[in-house]
Amino acid sequence: MTNTQVTLVQLDNYGPWTVTPSPRREVDLQTMQSRLYADLSQAFGMRDGYVFFTRFDNMIAVSNGLDLEDHARVQESIRNRYPVTVSLSIGTGASPADALVEATAALQAQGSAQDADRREALLGQPIDEETRTDDDVQIAHFDVVDATGTYTDELDAYSSFVHIEQGYAALMQHMHDAHDSLSFFVGGDNIIAVCPDLTPADYEEAIEHVRDTAGVDIRVGVGHGVSPHDAGMGAKHALEDAREHETEVEVVPEP
Amino acid sequence: MTNTQVTLVQLDNYGPWTVTPSPRREVDLQTMQSRLYADLSQAFGMRDGYVFFTRFDNMIAVSNGLDLEDHARVQESIRNRYPVTVSLSIGTGASPADALVEATAALQAQGSAQDADRREALLGQPIDEETRTDDDVQIAHFDVVDATGTYTDELDAYSSFVHIEQGYAALMQHMHDAHDSLSFFVGGDNIIAVCPDLTPADYEEAIEHVRDTAGVDIRVGVGHGVSPHDAGMGAKHALEDAREHETEVEVVPEP
Amino acid sequence: MTNTQVTLVQLDNYGPWTVTPSPRREVDLQTMQSRLYADLSQAFGMRDGYVFFTRFDNMIAVSNGLDLEDHARVQESIRNRYPVTVSLSIGTGASPADALVEATAALQAQGSAQDADRREALLGQPIDEETRTDDDVQIAHFDVVDATGTYTDELDAYSSFVHIEQGYAALMQHMHDAHDSLSFFVGGDNIIAVCPDLTPADYEEAIEHVRDTAGVDIRVGVGHGVSPHDAGMGAKHALEDAREHETEVEVVPEP
Amino acid sequence: MTNTQVTLVQLDNYGPWTVTPSPRREVDLQTMQSRLYADLSQAFGMRDGYVFFTRFDNMIAVSNGLDLEDHARVQESIRNRYPVTVSLSIGTGASPADALVEATAALQAQGSAQDADRREALLGQPIDEETRTDDDVQIAHFDVVDATGTYTDELDAYSSFVHIEQGYAALMQHMHDAHDSLSFFVGGDNIIAVCPDLTPADYEEAIEHVRDTAGVDIRVGVGHGVSPHDAGMGAKHALEDAREHETEVEVVPEP
Ligand SMILES: Nc1nc2c(ncn2[C@@H]2O[C@H](COP(=O)(O)OP(=O)(O)OP(=O)(O)O)[C@@H](O)[C@H]2O)c(=O)[nH]1
Ligand SMILES: Nc1nc2c(ncn2[C@@H]2O[C@H](COP(=O)(O)OP(=O)(O)OP(=O)(O)O)[C@@H](O)[C@H]2O)c(=O)[nH]1
Ligand SMILES: Nc1nc2c(ncn2[C@@H]2O[C@H](COP(=O)(O)OP(=O)(O)OP(=O)(O)O)[C@@H](O)[C@H]2O)c(=O)[nH]1
Ligand SMILES: Nc1nc2c(ncn2[C@@H]2O[C@H](COP(=O)(O)OP(=O)(O)OP(=O)(O)O)[C@@H](O)[C@H]2O)c(=O)[nH]1
Ligand SMILES: [Ca+2]
Ligand SMILES: [Ca+2]
Ligand SMILES: [Ca+2]
Ligand SMILES: [Ca+2]
To answer: What is its EC number (chains A, B, C, D) (predicted)?
Structure first.
């Protein structure tokens, strides 16, 4: 059974900061946000975790393998190098969606995202090192079939983007509502989903849903592992298999 | 009348690179992509331009104020510091959507996004310095009303994200189809749209559309200027006015 | 005659910040400092300027081509993205050393580097756009002859470093005392000097001085230009000539 | 007894790359080098290691706590995000200087720093996890007494730099020749030295040497630990004690 550890990363009181004393240059906000995300991605990644940029002011990490000390170090490093600070809240469970509900609730209980007095909260309890298993994380790497030939080389860049975005919107909502999964756009035509124990049939149905709702053809590779990196790398290799075999769903190791 | 200059930034042959010789670590791709975006944001921003991350492998810039030499320098700087290269294609026109159609078509004519022989294309013609005016760029900065109280502090982080994302999806498609505008999520609950000459009534209608379709309440500040920065900073101040007056649309200077 | 514009970049009240409330992690300080430097290098570089890291808390830029507005934008961008702020002070003159004396004195007159009330000073007057000429900047790019064969591949890494460092120390002091020049280590075995109108004989004598004092063989390429980039790129090409012709000094355009 | 693990980080075939096909913009090289360094500092730092920029094309890390897999990951991450690759060579021993001799020799045995066929070497053997002790690393954090009042606020910025640089040159050579230590400038007026088991008397003598040779007054805090971070943070606290007590040498824990 999966046991996903998620971490909610929330910038402290960020909205007010962006307009104090007057609105800040958008290009600087964009640079600051994307670099902060890049740093989190490396910091969690050095410990085999994944971070998704989500809204940039609220980012979601899959953090199996990072203990409280690791989290505290990331928090300190941001404080030392950025004009903003972050709160971190950890949740765990068989369902990624539920784990995030738990993490969010704990943080909300400490105060609002725009509470000037709530800074650098560090909440929740990571999974014990001894209880970690190879089944803890399941990751699905979705990819649009021939995005280059169908969209990028055919439509104007914004229309391509709208199509992929619609496929993404359909997928993320379906995977959340039907499958307790958290799906994230990771650039290009790729979506990575953190899932509970799903079956190949679940994935086939999701792919069909996206085709029916948004008219976008996708395929998926699925991997398992003790960490997001292990599961995610498995998923990438499975996706390569799916490309080669022209199949819709590939799971490694085979279930 | 507006005269928007857009630049399509396309990573050259990026898809194959991500899986050669075998799939690359996702955290490294995420870091590389977001830093490349951050650098473009600063580089264009130093000349008062805006860049949006869009798909990360295809980014869209509003580049009024950057000439061909500026573009060439950005291209060279990326080549000197990243393992990937970028092609740049410029389009111009009263309609931002049409300008991007032009820019995309020119690049597609040079070869596929995944053509190994098409590298560092630099296409299109910037607006002549002498013909630039204060009306060239119109930018609308949309923002969800009380996102913190309605979503962030109330729902779990993913559900908040889904709501904002749905508002965004509805807005971006409507603004594109009805108003030839290019709208981009810029983090948090903010969307920035590059528009032709739209009226306050157009914006009111768009806001109503989002409320009806996605159930999300938004407001907007609109600015004009010779550059994206000037227009965008006007829009931010107008948005502050809208917050203060609790109005839905504010335009500066008043039309 | 040269007319060098230098900008002193000083972190405001940085010493106290590094130990408040308690000493900060060294790796974070190192990261923050080197990224701040990298950003300044890009920001000045987009306008054809050069920045040298020097002490990191006091950096020296050659800023011909950047006006006050450009400086203000750099200052604002740092403020928006870093936990520290910078003061900027501009000096100009035929002698780079004197220009820096002027810039430093102006900043010192505003208060100490560790005065908590002196923040984001912006001082001095750039060279008028109309008076700029192709002779304004002279840059000399010094390079150790066969550093790889003599040091890197032969000695242990620290001893190699000590030798190059000693050559550098001898050169920087000599060029300052005898030739009013500002010389900076730029990595590897390279030193870039910003000079007044020096003759090939001056450079030969400097090279001899370094050979006699530190036992290190160097050669130099010298360029002129309206901007640091133009002069510096000339110097690099001249250095390539020197490598090819196995000469000690090459100047472009030939004097 | 100390047991220092050092890692030599060497950019592969970097010299030729900087001038192929023609000399690259200096500001881009500066940015690339300093960001590469910043990333290494974070990557090693997440595991409690230290990296010093040294020559930028040859960097020296104190890497107690990082095993071969950690090194391989750093190497891979650089390859995925930069246009250059790095070789890594590990050496260990009671003497930091000797450990680096070992690391350098191993790398040189694989080929020249400018050998196009030698890429991404990963050499040497880290210290076994079980044999690590609290005495493994000794770090001395040297600092100029009242650099602000004596130099920064008094002299022009270049003369201040020359004075600090001379103190540094005297210290680094003395600590290497007399004490088998590796000393590095870390910005401002600070030097960090990685040392074998030295006594307070050794440090007093070094400080005297710098005062006599270069006329620069310095003090030092010394720390021990299982990792560079632990030892270095001890040294920082000891330095704060030295500042408070106006002593020249403070060691924690007291010997
Ligand atoms: N984040 C991420 N993005 C990727 C990865 N692989 C590809 N991409 C993105 O996906 C885009 C499209 O590449 P591909 O999926 O290879 O191209 P395609 O035309 O859809 O071809 P097929 O997927 O093989 O049918 C690229 O430009 C990248 O932005 C990956 O592993 N991670
Ligand atoms: N890119 C960008 N994001 C912003 C800006 N201002 C705010 N945000 C984002 O918007 C989020 C929400 O902040 P606000 O919009 O101030 O908060 P709110 O609760 O919706 O309050 P009101 O908008 O005042 O009703 C922040 O966390 C930021 O991520 C901006 O100027 N640019
Ligand atoms: N900042 C900077 N560093 C450079 C440049 N060119 C080379 N280097 C550095 O110099 C180091 C040594 O390279 P080279 O100077 O080409 O090698 P060499 O063995 O001394 O050979 P020759 O100089 O040709 O005699 C490289 O590792 C780089 O760190 C440059 O243009 N700028
Ligand atoms: N790398 C690094 N640099 C530091 C640290 N602390 C201070 N500095 C640098 O040292 C410079 C001078 O600061 P201080 O040493 O506090 O100032 P000072 O005037 O010498 O005062 P005292 O040292 O207290 O006599 C700062 O601008 C920083 O660049 C540190 O912990 N690490
Ligand atoms: Ca695809
Ligand atoms: Ca809002
Ligand atoms: Ca050389
Ligand atoms: Ca000091």
So the answer is: 3.5.4.29
